[in-house]
Amino acid sequence: MEALKEEQTPFEMGVVVPKRIVDQIGEGCYDHCVKVVVDEFQKFGLIVDRVPGLNDEFLKLVAPVEILGKAAAELQLKKRTQIGVDLQFEWDEADAFIKQSDGSLFSWCERFRCYNHMIYGIVNESNSAIVLKSECRDVRWEPGERLLWKLEKEGIVKEVFPIHDEIKRKQLLKCWALNWWDLTNQPLDDIYAYYGVKIAIYFAFLGMYTKWLFFPAALGILVQLVDFGSLQLLILPFFFICIISWAVFFLQFWKRKNSTLLARWQICYSVGAESAYKYMDTEWSSFHSSVGSIKFEADKSKKEKFQREEWFGHMLRFRNDAIIILSIICLQLPFELAYAHLYESIGSDTMKFGLTAVYLFAIQYFTQIGGKVSVKLIKDEKNENSEYRANSLIYKVFGLYFMQSYIGLLYHAVLHRNFMTLRQVIIQRLIISEVLENLMENSLPYMKYSYRKYRAVCNKRKREKGMAARKSYFNSRVEKEYFKPIYSASIGEELEDGLFDAVALQFGMIMMFACAFPPAFAFAALNNVTEIRADALKILAMYRRPVPRVAVTIGAWLNIFQFLIVVSICTNCILLVCLYDREGNWNISPGLAAILFMEHVLLLIKFCFSRIVPEEPDWVKANRMKNATQAQNMCSKQLLRNISGRRGTLVTGTPTAD
What we know:
This protein has 20 helices and eight strands. It has about 650 residues and is mostly helical. Helix 6 (about 165-175) packs antiparallel against helix 17 (about 520-540).
């Protein structure tokens, strides 16, 4: 009955509190605090369901659409209207705003913000402190103090987390995670409605990238298996040119798809610009209130202050980047070269496998240390919002990834010209490393979940020691979700930055060494087909429902993909030189000169092809211009009405001479 009730009522948030204690004291010490929390939630309009667990109690929350609308109005959320203009939400004018594809008024990201505002917005509005009893001690809830923050600080509220909607989760499991017949097709609209835009963008990119990989995979297998006779020397340069063209067109068409998805989901693209405008509006309002009618352009001291802060922020970012680069060169580069040299010197395959295992284990600690250092460094940077901070962290951490993934391969290819070892390492990275990574990503969450369940049962048995032995079991899904690990694709605690790291590293691997091992594209395509379903199953069944993140593009990763294409042009030209210059004389013969010429031509093609394909479809551009025109006309008419009404007031209020 409990499971049926949970399926019928789509509770969306959970609050973990201590389980009520019923003993000789009576009602219990903890129950008073929990009762106050429940009463405050209900006063706010939330529907609360109390579910007892083994060691804790869970408050499941859901808000009617009217309560969400009032919270959205208090937050001053901007939503898309029927005429295509983003305006501040007003509950009385809710019919003027566009609904989501599933019929709901608010997206999951907007609902989560409203829930967060309501849960943490409960304040003691009285003039005196309220005494809350907890564990036979008093907790003073001071006037103006937020209730949930106070109880979290006291350890009474253990956690607040989003809850899976069982009906929608099972639908996604059926049509997405367990649907292997649709290799790359995914229900992106349903993913966006359930998880938010960031995770939906990730799976959209992964699906499109995998679908586009089928062409270079087939071409790579053809180049590897077919003997073209006298044309064999021309096949690799031709394959290289095709791969670069494919990569450039893929990124351009991804930009088009990204803009199409945002238009379909009614999402405004200019997130960064919006935050900048808010920042300028805040500065202007404070400046206007203090200075009065003096114009901003005339205040030189204010300008100088902005300029100093701007350049100080640039210098901080430059300093942090320099620290990361010098650390990579001085600490990680010798480690990578030592590993590559030992791998080249060892003759036993068993020893090589053991060395690779030790190396993969060691670089995990290098990445963790580098990530923690990067997080500490970016805290000093004056980034406008969390998305800019995440991008700054991505650039720094990718330097570590780049050194770990590619320097050893270049060592085998350029210095030793050992292409057999190079191919072995590429196969290890593409197959063994990714298989082990997938096993770890899917087994560790289950192990953590099982361990937390085991600890909960043990704690219950210790607490009931001396009482009649009873079988311990979990009777609610909310408790099972609480024991699941938190989904996070980030190195920093508050920055969601690591969704695309594995995809970017794979893209760099197959692109930078395409001429050395053409079938690598086939291995990548096969891995990504399984990765789509494995990631979907992971976030649907093995993790809690992720906290929604606001992001409309893949952010800094797009620039990294562009950078990897340029680097791959250079590295593949070096590989072609090593393949054709067997003696190692490095003579500029006509063949080698042709390769150098091809490098410059490909760089030109890369930048030219980027301009051939528009970044957004014409219908998206036309729709945006239409909305902008309608907004301008509406504002113009409103301004004219205000001006006319003000003049009428002035005319009627003017005294006449007798």
